[in-house]
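Exercise 7. Given the encoded structure of a 378-residue chain, write a plausible sequence.
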């Protein structure tokens, strides 16, 4: 990657620098600008993770991986208050800063300039936002509305960050992430339907575990596969993270689908398109089917994921009708962003593209869907 990677990093940093230019007339309040800044920040983090995986430019890679999420958070909080609102000037700053730094690298400028520039941008944004009364008001409002499930969901996102720094810890970090998602779903559900959320969790966990035990031993309904060599902890030969996922992510997909079983099935199917590549690569399960369709898995596997996801959605609706499109739906949306990114880091490009398109096309255009039943904001 070399200079080209560093130049790309600086181009992204410059975009954030442009987002971080102080406004003279106050913020626009545009959610789009805040989302744009957050995505750029996570793009920096992803670039840093990629550099770490390939061993390129460790100082800059570490700075990007650590400060990128922080910049994303700052942009999500007050990107509209930082944006200068002049796109032609913004483009000029972006291009000139990127090309200028690339030229400086070619002349032998120390590579430490990249981390220093990134840290300076982060510090400047903290200072600007800290003095902004609108941002302080947003923080105060957020502290009032903040619920424990939101904190757990945020922690589930943050626990992904150390994966490029500690690839051997992927099984442990993956389990911690799924436990946090499960706890977030339980806490969210307890506030809205009380103890019934425990019944939903037990049903999904128990049925999911039973299907995995049967599937790995008989080949029905998914196909011929095994968990031999899967990382612990195991439950009856099945990695604990698997039945936890059958509850946490399918429950989130059910909320995102507003209780529509067929839509939940599609969301779960799109999720599995990425899981098959990632989990087989990391040794969680191995396929032995003679007629593979995608990363070793046969057609029956994807039909079964659609069917099981739809069945779980029916059960959730029966046990807890009228949940609506609640805030825990964001767990699936975040997975739709981070799972493809993880696939890219491991070099699984076809799976990353298919997973990103499938999950995000289904997860994000929610404004165009026909909604039924009561709606819940959180």
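Solution.
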């Amino acid at each position: 990657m070399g200079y080209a990677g560093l130049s790309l990093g600086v181009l992204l940093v410059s975009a954030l620098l442009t987002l971080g230019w102080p406004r003279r007339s106050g913020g626009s309040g545009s959610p789009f600008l805040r989302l744009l800044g957050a995505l750029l920040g996570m793009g920096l983090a992803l670039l840093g993770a990629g550099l770490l995986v390939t061993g390129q430019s460790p100082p800059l890679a570490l700075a990007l991986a650590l400060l990128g999420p922080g910049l994303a958070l700052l942009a999500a909080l007050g990107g509209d208050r930082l944006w200068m609102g002049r796109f032609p000037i913004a483009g000029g700053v972006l291009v000139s800063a990127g090309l200028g730094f690339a030229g400086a690298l070619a002349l032998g400028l120390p590579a430490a300039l990249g981390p220093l520039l990134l840290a300076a941008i982060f510090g400047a944004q903290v200072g600007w936002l800290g003095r902004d009364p609108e941002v302080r008001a947003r923080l105060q409002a957020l502290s009032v509305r903040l619920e424990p499930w939101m904190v757990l969901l945020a922690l589930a996102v943050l626990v992904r960050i150390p994966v490029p720094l500690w690839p051997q810890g992927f099984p442990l970090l993956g389990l911690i992430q799924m436990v946090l998602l499960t706890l977030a779903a339980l806490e969210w559900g307890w506030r809205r339907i009380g103890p019934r959320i425990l019944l939903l969790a037990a049903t999904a966990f128990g049925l999911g575990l039973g299907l995995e035990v049967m599937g790995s031993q008989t080949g029905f309904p998914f196909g011929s596969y095994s968990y031999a060599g899967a990382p612990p902890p195991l439950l009856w030969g099945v990695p604990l993270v698997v039945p936890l996922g059958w509850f946490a992510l399918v429950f989130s997909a059910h909320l995102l689908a507003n209780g529509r079983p067929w839509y939940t099935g599609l969301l779960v199917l799109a999720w599995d398109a990425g899981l098959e590549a990632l989990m087989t690569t990391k040794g969680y399960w191995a396929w032995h089917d003679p007629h593979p369709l995608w990363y070793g898995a046969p057609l029956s596997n994807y039909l079964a994921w659609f069917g099981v996801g739809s069945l779980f959605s029916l059960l959730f609706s029966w046990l807890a009708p009228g949940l609506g499109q609640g805030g825990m739906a964001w767990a699936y949306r975040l997975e739709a962003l981070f799972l493809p990114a993880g696939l890219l880091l491991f070099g699984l490009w076809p799976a990353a593209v298919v997973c990103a398109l499938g999950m995000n096309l289904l997860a994000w255009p929610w404004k165009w869907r026909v909604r039924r039943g009561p709606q819940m904001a959180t």
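Remark. The longest helix spans residues 58-82. Students should compare their own answers with the one above.
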